[in-house]
Structure of Glycerol-3-phosphate dehydrogenase:
Amino acid sequence: MAAWRLRRSGAVALAASSAVAAVALAASSASASDPSAAALDAARQRVARHGAAPPPRDAQRAALAGSTPEDPLDVLVVGGGATGCGAALDASTRGLRVGLVEREDFSSGTSSRSTKLIHGGVRYLEKAVFNLDYGQLKLVFHALKERKQVIENAPHLCHALPCMTPCFNWFEVVYYWFGLKFYDLVAGRRLLHLSRYYSVDESVELFPTLAKNPHDRSLRGTVVYYDGQMNDSRLNVGLACTAAVVGAAVLNYAEVVSLIKDKSGERIIGARIRDTLSGKEFETFAKVVINAAGPFCDSVRKMANSNVMPMICPSSGVHIVLPDYYSPEGMGLIVPKTKDGRVVFMLPWLGRTVAGTTDSSTAITMLPEPHEDEIQFILDAISDYLNVQVRRSDVLSAWSGIRPLAMDPSAKSTESISRDHVVFEDYPGLITITGGKWTTYRSMAEDAVNAAVRSGNLKPANGCVTDSLHIVGGYGWDPASFTVLAQNYKRMKKTYGGKVIPGAMDSAVSKHLSHAYGTLAEQVASIAQNEGLGKRLAHAYPFLEAEVAYCARHEYCESAVDFVARRCRLAFLDTDAAGRALPRIVEILASEHKWDKARKKAELQKGREFLETFKSSKNAQFSDGKHNGR
């Protein structure tokens, strides 16, 4: 038994040890005269360290509260979405003292409700060509560069995905073939894979549910190109944890209640913050505040100047999740033009099919809900291209996200607004970053930190290094990493009678853990084996009880909703399964956080109310007959 444990220990540590050795070798070859190279190597060593974990939440809160007017932070970031966490990571790796506060949980807003695509923008390329718009072309160049970086910096959470575009006449074949070849050309050395044409028979073999003759049209073939796909909220949480590992003080459930100005009232020097878990308030002082609050950035701006003009044009994007048989594993379907000219897609994601999206004006709210007509629009659109009956009863989950588009007063619809980002300082000491998209979060963060450095006359030790920095769990990971878990760990499961029985760490669970946690997956597997938390949370899904405990200890998971929506993705994949898993999730979190009965009851109620905003077929009322087939 002892020998077996030694072999197991050596196996599970191999990937992380190799990563640290590779990073150390890179550090030894870095030029001492290059501060950016030295800073990158130092950050890599901290992130790649075996078992790297961020400081506990209490320590992060104390670091924020410990700042004073005489000894302020360099940068305080408001907003824990992709851009905010990216800015905290960027600034901290430049040697700056950094804090970040988020009113809810990391990725609780727009960043967890995305399309899950990391894309360069085929639509923007089309506009650039036909409108001779160099600005749109630069946007595509830039996004394609960032697309490659996102995939490389979080290899366990991101991957290339082939996307199929159906063509129903020969003009479309030629049009899309040339257009997507140009997309390949623009990507240059950052190309993921070459696009190509497939015949009708080849296309149906690759995508069996694709209709050959929908609505009296004949399929002439398809053109397949590649973009990236991600697990968005886990990537966002990974950014927050990476920022914490390299020195940033990040705190979720910390609401900015007001901004602090200097004695003259002419500059922002910090913020008053309420810890919404304890109800206590404290002040954090900083030389510059970065407003990365997404759709809510106007609210933060008004804390500095109540008369500022709103500059957010909120757009609603609705997505639905369907069973896996709607799309094959490893191949998406992109419909370039729907009845009203919008793009609709079906993509395989985490063992299910995600379809979307809408693009319409909406009000800004904390928990946006999809409207039934938007769900029906998506079902209508995809049914035009499939040979299977599309049913409303198949919708496992449906959600709405708010895109914080930068306002263009001359635009007639949100569809015509560019997704490029805007960085500006409309009050001294307050830098606002908004617009953009998930794909370009890293460069948006870089631009925001650059602006903060200029505004506060800060003295960073080096320039931006995040283009070459993996997030936690990324160093040493490869697609075969799951085999170490499958071969060396057991899932010890507690029965209802209290007995602990062993179970296999099967391939489905091992692959899930490896892709969700990277090289840190072995820590989750250890909990499953050594603490009897190896049972699945929901039938037919690979999420384990051990993940709840791990996320509570190492990923700032403070509520049941945090876990079910953003640490695992069960709320987005299957709302009803998430509801059934809630009681057990609450029990494990209660044990980790020492909750009393009242808190447990409140968490369960809050979780159920949250899941009601996801319009699955069982928690929504619908009467349209077209998609009601059984």
Observations:
- The chain has a mean pLDDT of 90.
- The longest strand covers residues 281-291.
- The chain has 20 helices and 20 strands.
